[in-house]
Amino acid sequence: MGSAGGTSDRLVLGACLVALGVLAWFCVALHAxxxxxxxxxxxxxxxxxxxxxxxxxxxxxxxxxxxxxPLRVQAELDRLLAGGRIEFETGNDRLRPDAAPLLDAVAExxxxxxxxxxxxxxHTESRGNPAANRRLSQRRAQAVKNYLAAKGIAPERIHTxxxxxxxxxxxARTPDADQLNRRIEFRVLAPGSR
Length: 194
Hints:
- The protein is mainly alpha-helical.
- Helix content is 46%, strand content 10%.
- It has helices at residues 3-37, 69-82, 100-111, 130-150, 175-181, and strands at residues 117-123, 158-162, 183-189.
- It has a 3-stranded mixed sheet with strand order 2-1-3.
- Strand 1 (117-123), helix 4 and strand 2 form a beta-alpha-beta unit.
- Helix 2 packs antiparallel against helix 3 (100-111).
- The longest helix has 35 residues, at 3-37.
- It is elongated, with a radius of gyration of 33 Å.
- It starts with a helix and ends in a 5-residue tail after the last strand.
């Protein structure tokens, strides 16, 4: 159902609520004199004993449990990639120098959870030969693996995948779409999942 149906449902609901409110007011107004003349029961005396003084107690709330390592690291890698891109020289697998700070931050996150593996997936734009794009994306993923290994991440923890142009973020064939589709993604793998 479209938004028009939702609006119609809300109008009917609103009219029903107004009608119920009017009916309730009418019932109270009709029976108010009878309720006012009804005799209230006599109050029951209560005996109170002095209570001990209440001392203020400060209770610290329990800290939230930490997120499991795979979720925490994946969220941080996603945050890092949302703020920057890992870029390569045009048509090859050489990392551009401006990729270093982002890859250094990725290495830092991976070092914080040595029990986790990571998959590095390379993607390309849709222009060109699909087989050549797949090979290029695999070489780019391998270049990222080599960089991370040089930063101290054990190479056996890093798995690479070249997807070429098979999983575009944007299906348009424009320069902006091509730039979005040329990317590296990280997928944190739980222990024992490989």
